[in-house]
Design goal:
Homodimer. The protein is of the alpha/beta class. It folds into two domains: about 1-145, Enolase-like, domain 1; about 165-415, Enolase-like C-terminal domain (TIM Barrel, Alpha-Beta Barrel). It contains 15 helices and 17 strands.
């Protein structure tokens, strides 16, 4: 099926940031940070993001490709160490490419499952490599069978959902005011992320800065939106609520109740209210928060991110009834078949499936994520890469709308394309 394999080293859509150093108080200096890195592998608190494009030449000279990329906060929350492209291309040349040439190209899913088992000196391939190579594999099947990647996934997993547009979630980065205006003007479905990753400067030691921000956000939606625009408010707090309220569950729940009232009538989701530095502790604490919210009739959704790094982790969070929604962080899960199966597992268990990822991905990985979301009918997808809103939103929205039109033309059951 393939006759050649190449790679090129490129840039990603954002930067690698040492989350531990930022939480510890690294100071912003223009767009950089001043401070000493605290996470292994980092040379500075913020450094350029990297990617590797994996390029497959098919027997008929068609070209398939995918991009290896890693998340902004690499090395945090139990995740893989910093992705260094020049070091990892050796694994492509010595292990991955020989594997691809030896394989019988009969099933996208089967090849991806075998890709996950490859090891080098007892260690698995970096998740970023598995992520990018699996994208290229999916694209190769798409090119060979002359179908969209959405169709390949649906065929492989025997999916027959009606197909409709997936709500898009945009992230503001630190420009949490100007970028909100962009989101409202473009009628983004879910917003603004807001990057609340520091207690002192962004949340407030009693949560007062986030309270003020959410009040502003609601008014801004009313001013720039219209009566038919009802976005969901989704805020990622990176564990800062736990820090500010010293992990007192009653105080955390009371604070969330205040946030719910401020946001009404808009739905509120809080991602990562605490970061307990281990999966077991994270599940236990989030479960307690969720139960307390339910007991008090507080309608705030809890979204898992940190310590939810694999398909097995996602299953553990769901079985413990710890959350209302899971961020399926695509680069962290490695081969994309894991992200596909994670969305399907969430849907089977009535848990929100947020096909996320990172601002530090690429245009290509974002496009492939759109096909995963459409095929599995995820509940929302991240606008990525980058933190400028417009670029990532354009990439995800346009790929989605193109694909919906193509699928409708082919006679699939597409709703409102």
């Amino acid at each position: 099926m393939i006759k050649d394999a190449l790679y090129s080293i490129g840039l990603s859509g954002f930067y690698f940031d040492d989350q531990r150093a930022i939480k510890a108080g690294a100071k912003e200096d223009g767009f950089a940070y001043r401070g000493i890195p605290l996470t292994s592998g980092y040379e500075s608190v913020r450094q350029k993001g990297e990617s590797i494009s994996v390029i497959l030449i098919l027997d008929d000279d068609q070209i398939a490709f995918g991009d290896c990329a890693a998340i902004q906060y690499s090395g945090a929350g139990g995740r893989e160490p910093l992705f260094k492209a020049k070091e990892l291309v050796k694994d492509l040349e010595n292990v991955v490419f020989p594997f691809l040439f030896q394989e019988k190209w009969e099933s996208f899913r089967f090849i991806c499952q075998k890709l996950e088992t490859l090891s080098i000196n007892g260690r698995k391939l970096h998740t970023a490599l598995r992520y990018g190579v699996s994208q290229a594999i999916l694209d190769a099947f798409s090119k060979y069978y002359k179908k969209t990647m959405t169709e390949i996934i649906r065929d492989e997993y025997l999916l027959n959902f009606d197909i409709k547009k997936i709500p898009i979630f945009a992230q503001s980065g630190d420009e949490r005011y100007i970028n909100v205006d962009k989101m409202i003007l473009k009628r983004v479905d879910v917003l603004p992320h807001a990057l609340i990753n520091n207690v002192e400067t962004k949340l407030g030691w009693r949560g007062e800065k986030l309270i003020e921000y959410l009040g502003w956000l609601k008014e801004r939606v009313k001013i720039l939106g219209d009566e038919n625009y009802h976005p969901i408010f989704h805020i990622d707090v990176y564990g800062t609520i736990g820090i500010a309220f010293q992990y007192n569950i009653d105080e955390i729940v009371e604070y969330m109740e205040k946030l719910e009232k401020i946001c009404y009538p808009y739905k509120l989701r809080i991602e990562g209210p605490v970061d307990m530095e281990s999966k077991e502790l994270q599940i236990d604490f989030l479960s307690k928060i969720k139960r307390k919210l339910k007991e008090r009739g507080i309608n705030v959704d809890i979204v898992a991110d940190e310590w939810c790094n694999s398909l097995d982790d996602i299953k553990d969070f769901i079985k413990a009834e710890a959350v209302d929604m899971i961020q399926i962080k695509t680069p962290v899960l490695g081969s994309i078949h894991n992200s596909i199966e994670a969305v399907l597992y969430c849907k089977e268990n009535n848990i929100g499936a947020y096909l996320g990822g990172s601002c530090n991905e690429t245009d290509r990985s974002a496009q492939v994520s759109v096909h995963i979301a459409l095929a599995t009918q995820a509940d929302q997808i991240l606008a990525k890469p980058g933190m400028g809103v417009d670029e990532g939103l354009m990439i995800v929205y346009n790929e989605m709308m193109r694909t919906l039109k193509i699928l409708k033309k082919k006679g699939l059951n597409v709703i409102d394309a």
